[in-house]
Amino acid sequence: MEVIHINSSVIYISHRPDNSTVGQMTEYEQCKDMPALLIWYLCLQVINMFLGIPANLIVLWLIHKNKGESSSSDIFIFQLAILDVLFCLILPLELANKAFHTTSNTWYILRFFYGLKDSSPLFLSCICLDRYLAVVHPIFFTKLNGRHHRAVLTIVVWIIILAYAAAKCVGNIPNFDKVFTAMILGAFAFMVFCNIAILWALWQSGPGRDEMHPVKKRACKMVLIILAIIVFNYFPPVALFPFQEYFSPDVFRCYIHYVAFGLMDFSSTVQPMLYLSKEKMPQSLNCCHSCTTHAQ
């Protein structure tokens, strides 16, 4: 009987396997000796479906309902919620494909939706950029009070996302994993820079070295929470994938892969819940409005 060896460096660094990996064995069977992290990953996907979908739908409803009073970043938050709803819907197909029966047709569909999720940090980067301009460059931000440029940026980002997802769906493009690595590294570095710059600007704008306006203090606290979420959800793939060669193929396939993407995919629930927390903490996710009002 012929034994097929799988190159894990091609398979897993770009979220999910390519066409060459599809065979008779499911991913659960491949990791049957170390299934803990795969089960943990699927549990997170269950939470995404049953908590993430309602949370994102509520975000979409609230933004649509309050569109007359919406903040500058709501257009990006709206698009991000749409992406997360689409991604959270794939659990039944993903569960069947990973645990019961693997087919090439289902991988085409799954890879497309994985591509949508892979590139969702682009919209999160747009939110961070909008906040950064509002706090650090308020004069320039006031000149961009129209929504035309945000709509254009949204269209451009959607074109990039759909092109990436379509290319990932094909599954056999050489070195395509490097596109994901570059994108996640760039988005992560950009988001961290924007949030640290916002924190620094808010801290410097306090009336005294050891004193800060209560509104600015709340904004600073919220930015810290957002920064923590960015690090929690997006730091694992950034930190682990460059060191893939130091792990054995089985460990990377059955452990590292599911740790990194499990936490990253769980952002589909964390992000809308953070936005909805503004019921208790006004303007929580998008602190542009309060920061712009009180930082000038």
DSSP E strands, number? 0
Which blocks of ≥5 consecutive residues have pLDDT under 50? 1-12, 18-23, 279-296
Question: What would you report as the Rg, rounded to the nearest angstrom?
Answer: 20 Å
Determine the mean pLDDT: 79
The main β sheet shows up as: none
Structure explained in plain terms:
71% of the residues lie in helices and 0% in strands. By secondary structure, it is an all-alpha fold. It has one domain (17-294): Rhopdopsin 7-helix transmembrane proteins (Up-down Bundle).
Task: Supply database-style keywords.
single chain, 296 residues, mainly alpha, globular
Topology:
Layout: H1 8-11, H2 27-30, H3 36-65, H4 74-88, H5 91-99, H6 104-118, H7 121-136, H8 138-143, H9 148-170, H10 177-204, H11 214-240, H12 249-265, H13 267-276, H14 288-294
Summarize the structure.
The protein has 296 residues and is mostly helical. The protein has helices at residues 8-11, 27-30, 36-65, 74-88, 91-99, 104-118, 121-136, 138-143, 148-170, 177-204, 214-240, 249-265, 267-276, 288-294.
